Amino acid sequence: MTAYEHTLLDWRPRRAREDDTAALETLIPLSARTLQASHYTSAQIEAALGPIFAVDRQLIGDGSYFVVEHEGQILGCGGWGKRRSIFGEGSVGDLLDPQRDAARIRAFFVHPAWARRGIARSLLLATEKDLCAAHFRSSELVATLTGERLYASCGYAASKRYEINIPGKPSLPVVFMVKSFDS
Description:
The protein is α+β, with helices and mostly antiparallel strands. 30% of the residues lie in helices and 27% in strands. The chain has one domain (3-137): 3-Layer(aba) Sandwich (Aminopeptidase). The protein contains six helices and seven strands; from the N terminus they run αβαααβββαβαββ.
């Protein structure tokens, strides 16, 4: 199949499973180091790997994390949280109220060789469909500078720019974004 034909594939995200963790632990650093390099220094990326750029096992356990794969290889991942954490793992009992709170879009990464082929968009659409089925009326996210354009093209509005401080390491500039859904 040619590269052009791959862009036409109908990506079908599936829910991530615990046994996907090893593949995700390989994908996420590769994605971050390659795709984030145009907006962040290598020191910023390395500082974010682990505390910010990491497999979110809570989302996998909650059944709200998705992957796209092709021929057995995971090409992308992302999901949403129903807990108070915006990134990283939240406590089990810290649930959001869908009538009052926004769902949290989290942990989107794409394999660099498969970037800009609709994978992240398909993951975001699956994520939004899922959170709407859980009766959330809005979602919010903390976008990297690299991801901001994708989220804006999908209806997310930038609300605030700030930097995530990582003790003893370079900070990471990010964008807080929000989106409301029709009832």
